[in-house]
UniProtKB/TrEMBL annotation:
One of its GO terms (biological process) is regulation of cell-matrix adhesion. Residues 1-16 form the signal peptide. This is Epithelial membrane protein 2. Interacts with PTK2; regulates PTK2 activation and localization. Interacts with ITGB3; regulates the levels of the heterodimer ITGA5-ITGB3 integrin surface expression. Interacts with P2RX7 (via C-terminus). Interacts with ITGB1; the interaction may be direct or indirect and ITGB1 has a heterodimer form. Functions as a key regulator of cell membrane composition by regulating proteins surface expression. Also, plays a role in regulation of processes including cell migration, cell proliferation, cell contraction and cell adhesion. The keyword Membrane applies. GO terms for cellular component: apical plasma membrane; Golgi membrane; membrane raft; nucleus; perinuclear region of cytoplasm.
Length: 168
């Protein structure tokens, strides 16, 4: 049982780390001379521009930012609740609250990445010519892929918490 508990804790911490990296790092959309995410756009690895109100569909990017941040926060809260339930829960009970919060984190990641996938082309085409070339020259970066992996990890851990019973 101790090995299973250690695996679940490591799996949850890995999920949280993936969410932090995917949310913070600037590699959702990359090309030869640029990289971009939902926070800023960098050209030639030196000229970085924050994405602000002047950016077309800024509200869509704010939705992506908010859901990624919310998913990271929910994942951390689920871990803390799991640790509390580990010591407070009666034997034989399930970690339902932890599971619900972790599945909400999973849902937030899925929403953010799905919106980004759907709107990526529109977001960059509506801006100036400088940003238009992102659509044709770029590809999804590792932070975008990590966000999808974090989605899978949070989903799996949410299901694991739902199935897991507290034992001696």
């Amino acid at each position: 049982m101790l090995v299973l508990l250690a695996f679940i804790i490591v799996f949850h911490i890995t999920s949280a780390a993936l969410l932090f990296i995917a949310t913070i790092d600037n590699a959702w959309w990359v090309g030869e001379e640029f990289f971009a995410d939902v926070w800023r756009v960098c050209m030639n690895n030196t000229n970085c521009t924050e994405i602000g109100d002047n950016y077309a569909d800024y509200s869509t990017l704010q939705a992506i930012q908010a859901t990624m941040i919310l998913s990271t926060i929910l994942c951390c809260i689920a871990f803390m609740i799991f640790l509390l339930q580990l010591f407070r829960l009666k034997q034989g009970d399930r970690f339902v609250l932890t599971s619900i919060i972790q599945l909400m984190s999973c849902l937030c990641v899925m929403i953010a990445v799905s919106i980004y996938t759907d709107q990526r082309q529109d977001l960059h085409q509506k801006n100036s010519e400088q940003y238009y070339r992102f659509t044709s020259e770029g590809r999804y970066g590792y932070s975008f892929i990590l966000a999808w992996v974090a989605f899978a990890f949070t989903f799996i851990s949410g299901i694991m918490y739902l199935i897991l019973r507290k034992r001696k």
